[in-house]
Amino acid sequence: MTFRRDPDGTHPPLDHPGYRSTALRHPKQPLVLMPQRLTELTGPLLGPGRLGEHDNDLTVQHDGEPIGQRIVVHGRLLDGDGRPVRGSLVEIWQANAAGRYKHRADRWAAPLDPNFEGVGRALTDADGHYEFTTIRPGAYPWGNHANAWRPAHIHFSLFGTSFTQRLITQMYFPDDPLFFQDPIYQSVPESARSRLVAAYDHDRTTDHWALGFRFDIVLRGREATPAEDA
Amino acid sequence: MEPTPSQTIGPFLHIGLPWPDGAHVVAGDTPDAIWIRGAVYDGAGELVPDALVETWQADPDGTFDHPDSPGRCEFRGFGRCPTDDNGEYEIRTLLPGAVDGQAPHIDVSVFARGLLNRVITRIYFPHLLDDGDPLLDTVPEDRQHTLIAQRTDDGYRFDIHLQGPNETVFFDL
Ligand SMILES: [Fe+2]
Question: Which stretches make up the Intradiol ring-cleavage dioxygenases domain (chain B) (predicted)?
Answer without folding.
Answer: 32-138
